[in-house]
Amino acid sequence: MKIGFDLISDLNLSPDDSFNWENKATSLYCLVAGNISSDLRTVLLTLNHLAKFYQGVFYTPGSLEFQGVENYSRRINEITSICKKIRNVALLHHHVVIIDGIAILGCTGWYGDEFNYNFEELHGMNRFEDLVYLKNSIEKLQKHLDVKKILVLTNGVPNKNLYFGEIPENYESLPELSLALGADSESKISNWAYGSYKKIVDTNVNGINYVCNPLMDYKKNTYWAKRIDVET
User: Fold this and answer.
1) Cα–Cα 20 to 30 A to 75, which of 130, 148, 187, 211?
2) Cross-sheet strand order for the sheet of 189-194
3) How far apart are the first and last CA of the chain?
4) Which residues pair with 204 in a beta bridge?
5) What domains sit in the chain, N to C, each tagged with a CATH number?
6) What string of pLDDT tens digits covers the 232 residues of the chain?
7) H or E segment at 230?
């Protein structure tokens, strides 16, 4: 069985932007790899709009959603509340969804962003927590009989090689998210979708398809989803 997912990320919307996804869906499901907006009402409206065109929308917040925020836990609770208001939107913040043998797990990842507020304290701590979550979840899913494939969704770029030479400042101060791959003993991870990089990526490394599909500036670009097909 093959299941398709539409990947979008890095919309970087302001409250004044008009976002329209009508007639652009190519799959039953949508992956949103963060950086919708720093304005939570815009996040709500955007997710609600996307939910009209998909059977399921799987969303992980990006660094933009935390821009200027000092209380990380409070913002997570606010985003959780937003997603609960929309019937077919699932927040993949330290959460796993299983669809027809495919486990989708996601986290922010805290990397590659342009908002270096309180970088070492906030990003370093949350980056480590996300890495531990990914590793532990992947390890548990190895023994899950109903899970044939794993799709990872992060806002952060998995490792430095996926910057293709454009490594951001402060990169060396944080561990790479791809360290979690060490827990994939049964080679169940088939796809890793991510955001926070300014170019479209679709590449296969050691049997894993890495895909990035940023918009970056909604006002200046015609934008389409990047379809990811996962076969179980």
Assistant:
1) 211
2) 95-99, 102-107, 149-154, 189-194, 208-212, 201-205
3) 5
4) 209
5) 2-231 (3.60.21.10)
6) 899 999 999 999 999 998 999 999 999 999 999 999 999 999 999 999 999 999 999 999 998 999 888 788 899 999 999 999 999 999 999 899 999 999 999 999 986 444 444 544 555 678 889 999 999 999 999 999 999 999 999 999 999 999 998 877 766 667 899 999 999 999 999 999 999 999 999 999 999 999 999 997 777 778 999 999 999 8
7) strand 226-231
Q: What dihedral angle (degrees, nearest 10) is formed by the CA atoms of 40, 42, 44, 48? A: -170
In a 3-state reduction of DSSP, which class is residue 48?
Answer: helix
The structure's pTM equals 0.93
Tokens coding 196: 């926070």
Contact 79, 54 (CB under 8 A): no
DSSP three-state, residue 90: strand
